[in-house]
TrEMBL record:
Belongs to the helicase family. RecQ subfamily. One of its GO terms (molecular function) is four-way junction helicase activity. This is DNA 3'-5' helicase. It is an enzyme of class 5 (isomerase). It holds the Pfam family DEAD. The lineage of its organism: Bacteria, Bacillati, Actinomycetota, Actinomycetes, Propionibacteriales. It comes from the Bacteria. Its EC number is 5.6.2.4.
């Protein structure tokens, strides 16, 4: 059990002078460590200390570990190892350390060319601090080259955003549990600092227990006096977009607009630019961006060159802009803890900042997914383990052999590695002799906790009591009390976030988003495994780049999608006209004009797909043919790529004989109309089938690319 939130350590003499000099160099001549920060630094100057700091964002946790690093380096100790989750935090901290006269380096995907030089400098004693991601800790090459040589001589280990160590936390990452491996390699005398702003009592206890029985917990009040929390309810998805478009120019300073998905971030940024143009500069920021692009956008927001970044949670922990004026959420995160962490980006060094939540009735479905997304499914685990042996196996091969989708395979391997059941080596993963068993009671409890957190978010959305107090209570903050500033305490919304949304804006946003072009890139590789064929799909069997009408959960099409797929009926005039518009714009880039329309009811909507294909054929004066599903459709959502590809290969039929030349398509360009899919395997297999039957090219038109 952790010790009380106190420490008897005192920072004095030479150590105090080094700490003060470090802080003034970093933050200016008037900057000083506060007493609570001095207590943490003093504790870290003691051998074998374990300190867990749970403090509000903006409290100054990094100041603690830089002051402690400066002291320990001045006394001849080894370098500090900082385990940090995001490149943005690493980059900021390298700059901050330089101001203090410390040399900090980072090893990440953005500076691979410098790794050898940095590692050599580290081992030579020229580096004061090394910042790495938890994924880097799990890399066997890094462990062999760096960690083994540092074992026993690290001066300090820092675990930033330590709530991610606990699977009770809102952002559990299996790779973070590898920190325990580092602890085991350390000299027992090496002090350890863990920091977070988002740990409730249960997470705090779990992390403290992992650090050691003597862990000192330094916990402070979590209320943020500068934040004005508001909830704007009763908006449809497209109205939420329109609210942001209307209100963004009036919000103070610059800020962040969070969305739950990559598609939402890109669509909303496009809508803002489409209405306001360069007058309101925004950009989409997601995990799909390369490191240099992320850095440019972070710097642009920090320099107020952008009004806002429209971002997923990829822009979260670690991004530091003290004068951030607002944080808007389009859709609610699944946990009040993660919501607190994200809104905490705003108002760190200014007296007033807005945090606005625009909830959606669809949020609950997203929350339910996140509640169980990381929980192992025993049957999947057994299949993954059966695909492994003592010889290294790559995740792609595990997917092909097990039939479990790649993303799920990679998550399960990381989770199994935490328990020592598998091990990552240079050329893949191997099975160890450690047996695996499913701890059902533990995972049931984790899911129950996450669902209780979702219930708290529902209370927040309904405004049942002070919003800041509710967030504090979700983090077990004993100082929780009504804030007097939120929309509940004030009895209404403050001026800049008033709920009015212009009907004209809703119409403009809908029109803009429906006019977007969604490219449908063809799959380029066969999956191998049970499918058989592997490697590149031959050019003579591959589809051309196609088009998608509705991408993911597009708000501009929400009602139409619900109507279209509620039952298998005729296509609406709205959908028919939209598809004709897509084709009209697409025709300028066609390698060849299609001559025959082929329908493929991949999701089972035979009447819908046939009716739309008939309409397009009549409008364009094209011939007609079909790809038939030879057997009843099977739910392919949980199948791995090899199994799903094999399913479509076995069930699709063209003409009288599968694979035979079909007079309807022989020598012709084909427009392939498909109702819905998420994986694109039915499009890929049907395109290969049509090409083998004589089609000169296949141009896919997909009604709905499901998320």
């Amino acid at each position: 059990m952790p010790s009380p939130s106190t420490t008897d350590a005192v920072l004095s003499g030479h150590r105090a002078r080094v700490a003060d000099a470090t802080i003034t160099a970093m933050a200016g001549p008037d900057a000083r460590l506060r007493e609570d920060q001095r207590s943490a630094v003093a504790a870290l100057c003691q051998e074998a200390s374990r300190v867990l700091v749970v403090q509000a964002t903006g409290w100054g946790k990094s100041a603690v570990y830089w002051a402690a690093t400066a002291i320990r380096r001045a006394e001849g100790d080894g370098p500090t190892l900082v385990v940090s989750p995001l490149l943005s935090l690493m980059r900021d901290q390298v700059v901050a350390a330089a101001r203090a006269g410390l040399r900090a380096e980072t090893l990440n995907s953005a500076n691979i060319g410098q790794w050898s030089q940095i590692e050599a400098a580290l081992l030579a004693g020229h580096v004061d601090a090394l910042l790495v991601s938890p994924e880097r800790l799990a890399n066997p090459g890094f462990g062999a080259r760096v960690l083994e040589s540092l074992a026993g001589r690290l001066g300090l280990l820092v675990i930033d955003e330590a709530h991610a160590v606990s699977d009770w936390g809102h952002d559990f990452r299996p790779d973070y549990r590898r920190v325990s491996d580092v602890l085991q390699r350390l000299s027992p005398a090496t002090p350890v600092l863990a920091t977070t702003a988002t740990a409730n009592a249960r997470v705090t206890e779990d992390v403290a227990t992992q650090l050691g029985a003597s862990t000192v917990v330094l916990r402070g009040p979590l209320a943020r006096a500068s934040l004005e929390l508001s909830v704007v309810g009763s908006l449809s998805p497209v109205e939420r977009y329109s609210w942001v478009v209307d209100h963004l120019p009036q919000l103070p300073g610059s800020g962040i607009v969070y969305t739950l998905t990559v598609a939402d971030a890109e669509r909303l940024a496009a809508a803002i630019r489409g209405v306001h143009g360069p007058a309101v500069a925004v950009a989409a920021y997601t995990g799909q961006l390369e490191g240099p692009a992320r850095e440019r956008l972070e710097d642009a927001l920090r320099a107020n060159e952008l009004k806002a970044l429209v971002a997923t949670s990829a822009l979260g922990m670690g991004y530091d802009k003290p004068d951030l004026g607002f944080v808007v959420h389009v859709g609610a995160p699944p946990s009040p803890v993660s919501y607190y962490q994200q809104v905490g980006r705003a108002g760190r060094a200014i007296p007033r900042a807005h945090a606005v939540l625009l909830p959606s009735e669809a949020d609950a479905g997203v929350w339910d997914y996140f509640a169980t997304a990381t929980i192992p499914v025993p049957e999947q685990v057994e299949r993954v383990l059966a695909a492994l042996s003592s010889e290294p196996t790559a995740p792609a091969a595990v997917e092909a052999e097990s039939g479990v989708r790649r993303g799920r395979v990679e998550l399960l391997l990381k989770q199994l590695a935490v328990d020592g059941v598998v091990e990552r080596v240079d050329r893949g993963w191997v099975r160890t002799e450690v047996p695996w068993s499913f701890d059902a009671s533990h995972y049931d409890a984790v899911v129950a906790v996450r669902r209780r957190e979702a219930a708290i978010m529902q209370s927040y959305i309904r405004g049942e009591r002070c919003l800041m107090q509710l967030l504090q209570e979700s983090l077990d903050d004993p100082s929780a009390a009504p804030c007097g500033r939120c929309s509940v305490c004030r009895g209404g919304l403050p001026g800049p976030v008033a709920a009015d949304t212009s009907p004209g804006t809703v119409e403009s946003v809908t029109r803009l988003l429906r006019g977007q072009v969604h490219l449908l890139e063809p799959r380029k590789m066969w999956p191998g495994g049970s499918f058989g064929a592997r490697g590149k799909i031959a050019a003579e069997e591959m589809a051309e780049v196609g088009r998608t009408l509705v991408f993911a959960d597009a708000p501009e099409w929400r009602d139409s999608v619900a109507e279209m797929f509620a039952r298998d009926g005729l296509a609406t005039d709205e959908v028919k006209q939209a598809c004709v518009r897509v084709l009209s714009e697409w025709r300028h880039s066609w390698p060849r004009r299609p001559e025959v329309v082929v329908d493929l009811p991949a999701a089972g909507f035979t009447t819908l797909t046939r009716d739309l294909a008939d309409h397009l054929a009549g409008t364009g004066r094209l011939q007609r043919s079909s790809v038939r599903v030879g057997r009843p459709l099977r739910d392919t959502a949980q199948l791995g790529s090899a199994q799903e590809a094999g399913h479509w290969r076995d069930y699709l039929e063209l003409g009288e004989q599968v694979g035979a030349v079909d007079p309807a398509v022989d020598g012709r360009a084909v427009l392939l109309v498909v109702d819905a899919t998420s994986s694109l395997w039915p499009v890929t297999i049907a395109s290969a089938l049509l090409r083998r039957a004589g089609a000169t090219m296949v141009l896919p038109l997909l009604l709905h690319r499901r998320p």
